[in-house]
Amino acid sequence: MSTTEPAPASTPDTTPWLPLSVNARGIYLAAAIDPTNPCYNTAELLECPVGTNLDTLRQALRHLYEENEGFRVRTRLHAGRAEQQVLGLDEFLENHEFLENIELLPVPENPHEEEPDSDPVPAMVRAWASSLIAEPLNPDAGITVRSRVAFYADRLWVYHSFHHVVADGFAAFNGLSRIASIYRALSSGHPVPPVSRASLAELIAADNAAEPARASDYEYWTAGEGATALEQPDTSLAARTAAPAPRALRASLPIPNTVQQNMLAAAKKYGASWPVAATAAIGAYLGRIGGYDTAAFGIPQMNRMFGPTLPEPTRALGKTSANTGTTAVNVLPVQVPSLGSIAATLSSVKDQFARNTQHPLARQEDLERAAARNDSRLFGAQINIVPFDAVLTLGVPTPDTDELPGATAPVARIHNVSAGPVADMTVTLRGMPGRGNPIYLELDANPNLYTMEQVQAHARHMGAWLENWATAATNELPL
Fold first, then answer.
1. Cα–Cα distance between 101 and 151 in angstroms, integer?
2. Do residues 143 and 93 lie in contact, with contact meaning Cβ atoms separated by under 8 Å?
3. What are 47's strand-pairing partners?
4. For residue range 324-381, what is the model confidence (pLDDT) as tens digits?
5. Residue 279 pairs with which residues in a beta bridge?
6. Most exposed: 209, 342, 362, 371, by fewest CB within 10 Å?
7. How far apart are CA 55 and CA 183, in angstroms?
C-alpha cells in the first residue's frame, strides 16, 4: 500500500482490465440479470447546515474518488469473465453531475402535518431521494456514483449513491466519514490528512491469494461442523421467495434511550456485545411471529479485520479491504431461538457470531445453492446491526467572545435511503447506543412478498417487543 498519488487525467489504452473480486462478481452478475432494476443502488442523505460550503464539499468528494481506485471503474463481461478497469479521475467525473446545482424543494403549506414522527427525513426530501435512486447506476459505463444537493427547511440535503458492486455499507460509511475529514481540513486551511490506500490491483491480488481459505471455509459449511446450518426449514415470514423489487417497502421508528440503555445493560449482564443482543432480540420476535422454536437469519459479515487465528491470506484480504473502497461484505446464517431463557439465547447467538468470524469467506450465494440441494433455505430475513454513529463533524466549535456566545461544531447527519437489494426482509438497527444520538429501527421488505401494512405493523410490534425484551433481560424475567 502507498499514500495516495494524483490519478491520471484519462485512461490509457494500456490500463489493464482486472477481474472483479469474488464478492463484487456475485453482485455484478446478479445486477446484470435486469440492468433496469435500481435495487443495486445504495444511497445516503447527508443533512447539512445551510452554511455548508458546496465548493469545499465538491473538493472533498473529488479527493475521495481520487484516492479510492475501486470507486472509479468501468466494468464489462468479456469472454465469460466479469472485469473492471480503473478510470482516470477526470474521465470518471466527465459522466457525473458533481453537486453543480442546488435544487429548491417546494415547502407544503402545513409541512409539520405531513411529517411522520418516526421519520427524521421530511417527506418532500424523501420523495426527492426516491426519485434519484429510481434511476439505476451503470458501472459498465463507468457510472458508479451519483450525487445531488437540495435545499429544504433551512437545511442542505446532499444525496450520495454508490453502486453496490463498488461499495458496501462499510465502504459507504467510511467514504462519508472521509469526506467529512477532508472537509474539516480544507475549511480550516489545513492540509488534508494523508491516508494509505490499496490499489485495485493489490486488492484483487489479495482476493486471489485468499482462494484456498475461501475453499476451506466452504468445506466447513458444507461438509464440516457448519453443515447443520444448511439443513434448516424455510423460516421466512413470507414462506416463499421472489426476486428483489426495484424499491423495498420501508417503515422506521426511533428506539427510546431507555430501551437502548436496558438492551446495553442486558448485553453487559450476559457478556454479550450490542450486535449479539440486538440480533437475539429481533430474531426472537421474528421467530415467535412465524411460529418457530428457532429461526434462521442472515447476518452481514463486514470481512475487514480478522483475529490472529485465521489464515494469513484471510487476514491480509481483510486488511486490504479495510484500506480501500470495495464491497467485501458477506452474509452468513445465525439460528436464533425464540423460546427459552434469554441467557441461553444470547449464549447461542454469541457462539454463532464467533463461528461465522472463524469461517467468513464462504460466499452466501454458494451456501444458498448448497442449502437448496438439501431442500433447505439458508435464511429468510436478514438482521443488520449498524454500530456507527450517523453524525459527522464538519468543523470545530466557536469559542465565546465578549460580544457573541460560542457555537457548537457544525455536524451532518447521515440518513440511509437504501442499502441495496432486499430479497425478503431486512431489519436494521442503525446507530451506537448510549451516546445520546438517535437509533432507528428500520424494516425494509420486498413488496413482492409483503404489504406496507404488514411492514408498518411489524415495526410497531417490534418496537414494543424490544422494550419488553430489554426489561425482561435486565430483570431476569421470562418473556
1. 10
2. no
3. 157, 413
4. 999 999 999 999 999 999 999 999 999 999 999 999 999 999 999 999 999 999 999 9
5. none
6. 209
7. 10
Asked if residue 337 lies in contact with residue 350, where contact means CB atoms within 8 angstroms, the answer is no
* Residue 281 near residue 270 (C-beta atoms within 8 A): no
- The beta-strand segments (E) located in 59-215 are 73-78, 81-86, 98-104, 145-152, 155-163, 196-197
Side chain identity, residue 383: I
**Cβ atoms within 10 A of the Cβ of 271, count?**
11
Which pTM does this prediction carry? Answer: 0.93
On the CB side of 82, how many CA atoms lie within 13 Å of its CA? 18
Query: What are 204's three cell numbers?
Result: 484483487
Distance CA 355, CA 350 (A): 9
Rg (CA), the chain: 23
SS3 368: helix
Q: How many CB atoms lie within 10 A of CB 112?
A: 7
Q: Find cell 451516546 and name the residue.
A: 435
Under DSSP, the state recorded for 143 is: B
Residue 4's CB is within 10 A of a number of other CB atoms, namely 15
* Range list of β-strands (E), 25-144: 41-49, 73-78, 81-86, 98-104
